[in-house]
Give the backbone structure.
Amino acid sequence: MMRIFLIGFMASGKSTIGKKLANKLNLPFVDLDTYIEEKFNTTIRFLMYEKGQEEFRVIEKEALSEVIEKYKDAIISTGGGTPCFFDNMEKMRKNGNTIYLEMDVPTLVNRLLYAKKDRPLIWGKSKEDLTIYATELINKRKSDYEQADFKVDGKNLNVKTLVDLIHKEVFTN
């Protein structure tokens, strides 16, 4: 079994690097947010707006369980908050390997400001507000992210680095 969960703050590159990694390792790629959007035939933003964050986190938890059940082998990118609610982190660690893509706040803020993806938690925030928000939220989530099996610097991450890590750590253990 090779199930790898990519975790980290929004805009840390989980989906982008996840697709490349899945391609390189010839595994299916699953983006948890996309899985949820397709299941409910709507956007994460609308789900959060319609159901509220608490109910969305329940939906996300159920989707994580479904993805684990459905894909024995896969690269799975999670939402930025996925590891921080319920027993999601424990569940991911029990059912695969977790890799934390760590990023500095200025890089994240720049990515978020210029990202094309709709992100409900940061909608309408200025660069200053976003910097404060990201710093506070990362500090709050850091203890969850730090439980990952592996931590990598996401700033200049390339697929080869991750493939090497996986071959060295995952295949040999």
Notes: The chain is about 55% helix and 15% strand.
